[in-house]
Design brief:
The structure is a single chain. By secondary structure, this protein is an alpha+beta fold. It is 42% helix and 23% strand. The chain folds into three domains: 5-76; 85-99 and 297-387, Elongation Factor Tu (Ef-tu), domain 3; 118-260, no CATH class. A hairpin with a 2-residue loop joins β1 and β2. The longest helix has 36 residues, at 164-199.
Length: 388
């Protein structure tokens, strides 16, 4: 029908004209051709009345069958302002994202949200508190563990140690003190960050707190290394072992308490906040509590069909375009190509052939991010060798 359809119209028209001529010639004379509808129906024989609807029906079927083909051809034709496809080796859909990728942060435990400390577009530093879950019971467990460890230490100190055993005790106490200093310094950083964000405190307060935390962490590493370097030390006594168990329980309680604090894994900008105070969260939630990324630079994650991946190379120049910015072109360069093949997601089209249903992720660094926003859909044009 696509090739033969246009030829049917002249044939049908000739059939109708031949039929009218046949019935117009009556008694070797020419029957007048009236323009009045009822008169025409009366003059035309019944056979002609029966054949005329058949011709009309054939015309209708032809129109219905040819119309989709014409529409499809109109859709497949390139637009007047579309880029010249001959300049490009591959054209692929893509999505703008931070150079770090979009980091989706959730909770590792089940709990009720007690506090959300950030909002969209806030700039955060690595380790900053984003969400706090209800933790009153865990704070109580930490207090109990601290009291038990202090009690066991007094019992141990009632019996003096000598030689290498005394060196071991000293190193163990130094590690325990350094661990407590890190916990206290982290709490001080959280308080300083809240003061800067909510109360307008000077940034120098937060800077000093973060510096103290960094020093405490370095000190802890040094003390742990000094304890590991001890050799030829006697085994702990029963009382010393009980103190070590109490300190282990304290560390475990602090670790569980820290799980109720959701922190930023990197420095970046908050892109999305889904956490709400009072809601119950769990690791199985499909939606992240917080999304963030480093938006000082942007990249495009393009989906190149697996049949075209052989044409893509690291360092290859590209042009990125978005419908929102008309014909503006933004330069970029291929930074990496994923090693695996995945089902298509971005710009998925059910009409694609099965051979194009899988893709390879290609990451393109934008030389100038321009007006792009994170999450924007774009088209990536990979230059052919002739135009590079």
């Amino acid at each position: 029908m696509e090739h033969g359809g246009p030829c049917i119209l002249p044939i049908l028209k000739r059939m109708v004209r031949s039929e009218e001529a046949c019935y117009a010639d009556v008694g070797h004379g020419v029957l007048p051709q009236p323009t009045n509808g009822p008169f025409l129906a009366a003059m035309i024989p019944p056979t002609r009345n029966a054949l005329f609807p058949v011709a009309v029906g054939v015309l209708a079927l032809f129109t219905i069958s040819v119309a989709p083909v014409s529409i499809g051809r109109a859709q497949d034709r390139p637009k007047a302002n579309a880029p010249d496809d001959r300049r490009w080796q591959v054209i692929a859909p893509g999505e703008v994202e931070p150079v770090s990728g979009e980091i989706k942060i959730g909770s590792s435990v089940v709990g009720r949200i007690a506090e959300v400390t950030v909002k969209v577009n806030d700039r955060v530093f690595a380790g900053e508190l984003l969400v706090r879950l209800e933790d009153d019971d865990l704070k109580a467990r930490v207090a109990v563990a601290e009291a038990q460890a202090a009690l066991q230490k007094r019992v141990r100190n009632d019996k003096a140690a000598e030689g290498r055993a005394a060196d071991r005790r000293k190193a163990e106490d130094a590690v325990a003190d350094a661990e407590k200093a890190v916990v206290d310094a982290q709490s001080a950083v959280d308080r300083a960050a809240a003061a800067v964000r909510d109360e307008g405190a000077p940034d120098s307060t937060l800077t000093a707190a973060r510096t103290a935390l960094s020093r405490a962490q370095d000190r802890l590493k040094q003390q742990q290394e000094a304890l590991r370097r001890l050799s030829n030390v006697p085994l702990p006594t029963q009382i010393e072992g009980q103190l070590n168990v109490a300190r282990g329980e304290l560390a475990y309680a602090n670790a569980n308490l820290e799980k109720m604090r959701i922190r930023a894994p990197i420095a970046g900008t908050v892109l999305q906040v889904n956490a709400k105070v009072g809601e119950l969260t769990s690791p199985s939630l499909p939606q992240p509590l917080i999304s963030l990324g480093e938006v000082s630079a942007l990249r495009v994650r393009a989906e190149v069909g697996e049949l075209n991946i052989g044409s893509i190379k690291v360092g290859q120049p590209v042009v990125v375009r978005a419908a929102a910015f008309n014909e503006r072109e933004f330069a970029g360069k291929v930074s990496s190509v994923a090693p695996g093949v995945e089902p298509r997601r971005t710009g998925a089209d059910a009409r694609r052939p099965p051979s194009d249903s899988k893709f390879v992720q290609v990451f393109v660094d934008l030389i100038d991010p321009g007006p792009f926003a994170v999450g924007m859909n774009v088209d990536v044009y990979f230059r052919s060798d002739a135009t590079q």
